[in-house]
Design a protein that fits this description.
The protein is an all-alpha fold. It contains 12 helices and no strands. Helix content is about 75%, strand content about 0%. Helix 1 runs parallel beside helix 3, helix 2 runs antiparallel to helix 7 and helix 7 packs antiparallel against helix 8.
Length: about 280
């Protein structure tokens, strides 16, 4: 167990530092630290998502029996990914910190902030990213022990499907980068937004009904009978995992409505109003 976790603890922070230093030092780029940090954090999240969804696809397609079949990647990648969630909490804080600086919260003469302002940034970060931080903490403190200990080698198919939920993450990251650099009205942002909406719906929201359907097919039960046939704590866990996905999907839909809503006619000029 220790080797995959150590590997993850090296790969994800190492990739972040490599990307940040490359963006800052390449003569053709010479990005500011804030830009390099934000883009590097999104890049690492996208790489992790691609790795997780690939591992999930391999596991889920390899397990013909959805309960008993096992694949070594299910436990290996779960252990490998644990350091990512710890790292990403810090990476998100760095992004928040640099955005805070860009908005002018540092001293006007470039001097360091007054004592106590760091805690204000921390409080603002926890307030803004509370749900994401809670999600990451739950992945490490709850989901990881359950997947390694409680499952006892059962249900690798379901774990593989859960890993494939990360398919939407690269689109989310690219969308945030485009918004950061005020590219909301480009064709790339609109295409990415449509792909993000579709992938999030299929791989995160509809994932849970699919898992219930897959179990019902295995057990010879109709879909609506599955919740009554499985333990209550399984339904509770699924509901707790689905709830934030529905909230984030609502935010994505709201953003999509703003993006694709027809823009109204420009306001009349003063001359037109006088006429």
């Amino acid at each position: 167990m220790l080797t995959p976790m150590v590997a993850g603890g090296v790969v994800f922070p190492g990739l972040f530092l490599l990307s940040k230093n490359t963006l800052q030092r390449l003569p053709q780029l010479r990005w500011e630290e804030a830009d390099a940090v934000i883009v590097s954090a999104r890049l690492v999240s996208s790489v992790q998502a691609i790795m997780a969804s690939t591992a999930g696809y391999i596991v889920s397609t390899s397990c013909k029996h959805i309960i008993d079949d096992q694949h070594w990647l299910s436990s290996a990648y779960t252990q490998f990914a644990v350091p990512y969630f710890i790292y990403d909490i810090y990476a998100m804080f760095l992004c928040h910190w640099h955005k805070h600086q860009v908005k002018g919260h540092e001293g006007e003469d470039g001097t360091p902030r007054a004592p106590g302002s760091t805690w204000a940034v921390v409080r603002g970060y926890l307030h803004k990213e509370f749900l994401m931080v809670l999600h990451h903490a739950a992945m490490v403190l709850v989901c990881f022990p359950l997947s390694v200990v409680w499952r006892q080698g059962k249900g690798d198919f379901f774990l593989g499907c859960m890993l494939m939920a990360e398919v939407s993450t690269p689109f989310v990251c690219l969308g945030k980068i485009l918004i950061q650099y005020k590219q909301q009205h480009t064709l790339l942002h609109k295409v990415n937004g449509a792909l993000m909406l579709l992938s999030f719906l299929c791989c995160r929201v509809l994932l849970f009904p699919y898992l219930y359907w897959a179990y019902g097919r295995h057990a010879g039960l109709p879909l609506l009978s599955v919740p009554l046939a499985i333990p209550a704590h399984v339904n509770l866990g699924a509901a707790l995992l689905l709830a934030p996905q529905l909230y984030w999907f609502f935010l994505i839909c709201r953003g999509a409505c703003r993006l694709f809503r027809p823009r109204g006619p420009p306001p009349p000029s003063p001359c037109q109003t006088q006429d």
